[in-house]
Each structure stands twice: as structure tokens, then as C-alpha cells.
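SEVERITY: medium
COMPONENT: batch folding queue
REPORTER: lab tech (J.R.)

DESCRIPTION
The queue accepted two submissions in a row. Attaching both inputs and their returned C-alpha cells so the on-call engineer can compare them side by side.

ATTACHMENT 1
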Amino acid sequence: MKILIIITGSVGCYKSLDLIRECQKKSIDYEVIATKNTFEFISKLLLETICNKQVYSELFDLDMEKKNWTYKISPR
């Protein structure tokens, strides 16, 4: 099972941290997307530390584009 967790700028940001911890306990694969307003409530560093992975927050992220491009052109 794979879950996409999208966090917006509200007090619910704090509950999303509990959801991430539960996913980790149950070995559920997940990705996290956060809006810019999320970081008014919790820091990106805190969120990435709890997730143990990159949190996506920019629509056009050059690093992400490079990774996808490399994946698309690599031999299979």
C-alpha cells in the first residue's frame, strides 16, 4: 500500500505528524507534499526529519526534474 499525504497550512499540520508516525509503525509506504503555508506551522526540517525522506513543496523543483529525466532516459 502506498499513501500520498498532502499537508496544508492549518492546525491539522500537527495531526499529520501523527499520521506519518503511524504509517512508519505499520510499514506503509508514503510520500509527503506540503504547501508553503504548512511551514508557517511546522518547519520543513522538522517534517523531513520525522519523515526520513524529502518533502515536496515546490511545483517546479529542478532537482526533482533532473531525477525524473535521468530515470526516463536510463536503459531498463
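ATTACHMENT 2
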Amino acid sequence: MVEVPIGLFSKQEYIVSKEDTAINQKSGEVNVLGTPRLLAMMEEVSFKSVSLPEGYVSVGFLMNIQHLKPSFVGEKVIIESTLIKQENKKLIFSIICKNDKGEEIGKGECTRVIVEKVKFEQKETK
């Protein structure tokens, strides 16, 4: 089993663009950060935090998030991901999203699963 250190931390900053809005994400009718885009940012930060041995990758398994406050075009979004638990091949991350004022705009958990890349991709072709 591949072990990943608990407490692994990653942080990334984004500036909300017009492409990130609910209107452009086709998830709403307002020009603020769309929830699908926030979810994708959260998953990206957890994904980028993990360095696995050659031949292994992590894949998304479960996202459970709350989008608590709007973020407008031009505003900064800061996302922090911390690995809080490993259950065999499952990696469970706690994710906090804040704006540049330190206000929480989102939070949640992301579960990723460690797989052997070649075997995983071969299943796709069968």
C-alpha cells in the first residue's frame, strides 16, 4: 500500500475571471464564482498536493462541499487543502476556501483514490 503523510498541506490562489462565473459555467444566472468552478478549484488543490511513486496516480472519488459566500470577478480566492486521513487507497482532504479578507467562502472534503495508472486506464478500453 502506498502511504501518504497525514497533514500534507497545499495552498493555491486564484483570481475569479468571467469564465469562472455561474453564467459561463451554466450553473446559474449571476456573475459570481460558479459552484462547479469552485469545486474544480478545490479538487485541483488536493490533486496537486499529492506526490506518488512512479506508476501511481490519484483519481477523484467524492466531493462534499458548501459554497458559503459569493466571490465576484476580479476577487482573489485562496484554497487550502490538508490531508486528514488515509483509509487504505483513499485519501481524505479537508478544504477551506477564503477570500483575501480572510472570510470563509467555501469548505468541504475531497476523497481521492490511489490507483495504478496503467491498470486503471486499461479498464477503460475493455
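NOTES FROM REPORTER
DSSP finds three helices and five strands in the chain.
No errors were logged for either attachment.
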